[in-house]
Amino acid sequence: MTAPKIWKVSIVGDQGVGKTSIVKRFVFDTFNGESVPTEETKVYKRKMDGILLMIWDVSVYDNHVDRILSGSKAVIIVGDITRYGTYETMADIARYLNGSKNSKIFVGNKNDLKYRAEFWKDELKTLSERHNSTYFFTSAKTGEGINEIFQFLTRNLR
Ligand SMILES: Nc1nc2c(ncn2[C@@H]2O[C@H](COP(=O)(O)OP(=O)(O)OP(=O)(O)O)[C@@H](O)[C@H]2O)c(=O)[nH]1
Ligand SMILES: [Mg+2]
Predict the structure, then answer these.
(1) How far apart are CA 88 and CA 51, in angstroms?
(2) Residue ranges per domain, the chain?
(3) Whose CA is nearest to atom 32 of ligand 1?
């Protein structure tokens, strides 16, 4: 018998971009419109494609960012497409992580509100190309694109 693969994946981004909502949609297939700031980093689990994903929902208040990100197979960097400032934060985080081994995936969340978008494909394309990576649009509200992020990880990373 081979040992199960266990991967740590961290999800980061500005306050309120929908990190917790994305994780809860993926793990429990639920969405509640409530806004409860994540004060402490929390780990969720789900198995996919034979890999146990340990998903770290990183609190913006966490002071141990290096510890959190170290050992992450991938870092999902999320922005809220209705707030341009959250895109700038995505770029800052990606720059900060440059040189680290973890793969970066860029996510524009709240795609159900795309009529209010302040950034879109051009910006995410630029950012993901700069970091040899890829991007997805998601909506934790409708579920659009959520499984695709994690499927991409399990199928493309080894
Ligand atoms: N319309 C819409 N609202 C969303 C979506 N994802 C999250 N939200 C809402 O945005 C707000 C913030 O979502 P959270 O999941 O708490 O965001 P977060 O990034 O975990 O926030 P912090 O933990 O405070 O950093 C909540 O009111 C959510 O219901 C989405 O895809 N569409
Ligand atoms: Mg949260």
Answers:
(1) 32
(2) 5-156
(3) 110
